[in-house]
Amino acid sequence: MNFILHRVLKAPEQLQALAPFGEVDADLMQQVTEESGKFVTEVVAPLNRDGDEIGVSFKDGSVTTPPGFKQAYQSFWQSGWPSLACDPDDGGQGLPAALEAMLYEMLSAANHGWTMAPGLLHGAYECIKHHASNELKATYLDKVATGEWLATMCLTEPHAGSDLGLARTKATPMADGRYALNGTKIFISGGEHDLTDNIVHLVLARLPDAPPGPKGLSLFLVPKFYEDGTRSAVVCERIEEKMGLHGSPTCVMRFDDAPAWIVGEPGKGLNAMFVMMNAARLHVGLQGVGLLESAWQKAEAYARERRQMRAPGTGSKAGEADLIEQHPAMRRILDAQRAWIDAGRVVAYRTAIELDIIKHHADADRRAVANRWCALATPVLKAAWTDQAFTGGSACLQVFGGHGYVREWGIEQVVRDSRVAMIYEGTNEIQAIDLLLRKTLSDGAAAMQGLLDELESELGSSEFDAEIRSGMERLGLLMRERMVPAVQADGADPALGNWLADDFLRAVAMVLMGWAWSRIRATTGAEQQRWAQPSGAFLRWVWPEFDMRMSMMERTLG
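Predicted structure:
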């Protein structure tokens, strides 16, 4: 992790050029990541199995988290971990977003269920900081920034999943300037729990005179407890029985005339909420990286201990058994997942660096380049790496054979826990549609072509780089000469872009991985052997997907 952050991406040099981070040097960054690892290893990871097997319990509207969860969370926020990247004026530590990203990658790898609790804190903090009134900030901002109080994001309703414009929850003006919320929200992570003294709910609802659709939604804040200690009329009706994440309560929340405050302007609720969702999408992409790392670590360790039959090409004699890591079928699985993990880290950590550049860089042109990167890379990171956490985690389970299917080894939990990341914070299909229709075709592919040009300029001159460069040029040509004209043509099929979206996102993911591995290969030098196997695995067993996706798009375009 530190190698990629410091040497591949040269994060300290980039970040020290930004005013808030002038004193954040490489030694400090490494110290923070090492202490992150210690906390996660010693406090959070040991709770993972009980979180899965014991799970949360629900009685009379109250949720009790698994043994040790509350104590671990109290230690987490009191040690300052949630506030790493928050503004010092709000009780934060003012450190780079990359350090927070690395922390949450570790947390997701160690105990995804527990990590769901603080997972929305940063997004809620940004939402309140940029959109709430000064009065709301005075009461809630530092509590959320430090993690003393946890937060929720209440969007989904029983009849309205991804289509938020169908939301019916009502907000009726009250005489004291607040609004009475009425409605039911489902799939609310951490809607009720015993981890903190208070919970801050951010809720999408509709004012009486609001137009239908997404433009009629406003955002409201209602806590579990008000300042005077009275409890709000927000009720947890039940918790869901789920495939995984048993340590995280997924709640059905009912609002019964619950007094709330509006956040931001009426009818601009989605604008405010997307600040929260975009922050969450980077973290979900990191969940994919972390969960895949967890699966790989378990499988790699098992493969180094388990002996089965002779492996071809090892020179073993008849009747001898070799370690299964020596068998090509197992090495292919392990090295291919390693290729995904390390490339994912390059993409994710760079995204975190670019987020700080957007906030703090003095040059408007450089901020625009950073905005382009984050807009285009974030949906790819979220979709492609959460998909790989599940499919790659399943491949790692295969390394165990029958042992992987039983609970003892822990790998089956990774597969179950990872599946939901492909769904929440915008399904992976919606990420693909967003990438192609809203962020690529809407400007005639200018932004995406600009990103491809930037990536290509950073490639080297090796045969590896030549192949990745050829792919980038092929994708650019398809966008400019076939996709854009086909979608913009008179009488064009309005669904054409949707048919192309999934394949397009995967093709862009392959290009980003190729660029990432080019950067790693250019940096390794004498350490090449450590990276040679996953680098080769990428070129042989991952990169060919690019040709497949291009072929699918070409056939769809006709």
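Summary: The chain has a mean pLDDT of 94.
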